Amino acid sequence: MKVRRFKRGLIVAVILIAVVASLGAAWVHHLGKVHRHCIKIAGTLFAEYAMKHGGTFPYHTNGFGDALLQLVKGRPEAIAFICGPGDDGHVFSNALHVPEEECSRIYVQGLSHTNDPGLCILFDRRSVRGGDHFYGSGKSLREVCMLDGSMQTIPDERWAEFGKHQVELLVAAGFKREIAMHYYLEAF
């Protein structure tokens, strides 16, 4: 009787160890994708850039793609942080000019550290299940970097409301409404 119970216990223990090991392997695989495109680090890059440039953030007359290129100029390791999930950064790595429509994140240029900290400065062009931090799982959402460097996640169902509010904040900051709306086309 004791031998039979011991064998059952051993089998259960082996099964539990196998399950835990496979879950652990899946988690390690998941960690390889997590934070590869961390928008929180992008906020730090913006703050650092502004400190070096009199409080202003990158700006370029060719559009935000080239402005983002200025942010990572001479820092190829920083490219991943201005690219959204699923973007390997090749566009920025190979470019002298970055067309806005090829960027996986949208950068709102023309802001400085004196603007409303509730303004969004960088956000995912497209929503992704789980965002960068929980890539591939959970709700579809966009990660956004606020002017103060903080990060938020905006679920798809709140994106239109968020975008419309951001347009109003940009207009209050002196942007023309058409330019402000250009950043948040999907909200309208």
Protein traits:
5 strands; alpha+beta; globular; five-stranded antiparallel β-sheet; 43% helix; 188 residues
Characterization of the model:
This protein is of the alpha+beta class. The chain has one domain. Helices cover 43% and strands 12% of the residues. The chain is built from 6 helices and 5 strands. Strands 1, 2, 3, 4 and 5 form a 5-stranded antiparallel beta sheet that branches. α5 runs antiparallel to α6. The longest helix is centred in the first third of the chain and has 30 residues. It is globular, with a radius of gyration of 22 Å. It starts with a helix and ends in a 5-residue tail after the last helix. About 12% of the residues have low confidence.
Rg value: 22 Å
Shape: globular
The structural class is: alpha+beta
The sequence of SSEs as H and E is HHHHEEEEEHH
Q: State the oligomer.
A: single chain
Largest sheet features:
5 strands, antiparallel
How far do the termini sit from each other? 72 Å
Number of helices: 6
Q: Which strand-content bin applies to the residues?
A: 5-15%
The level of helicity is: 40-55%
Low-confidence stretches: 12-34
Number of domains: 1
What's the β-strand tally? 5
The average pLDDT value, as a whole number, equals 81
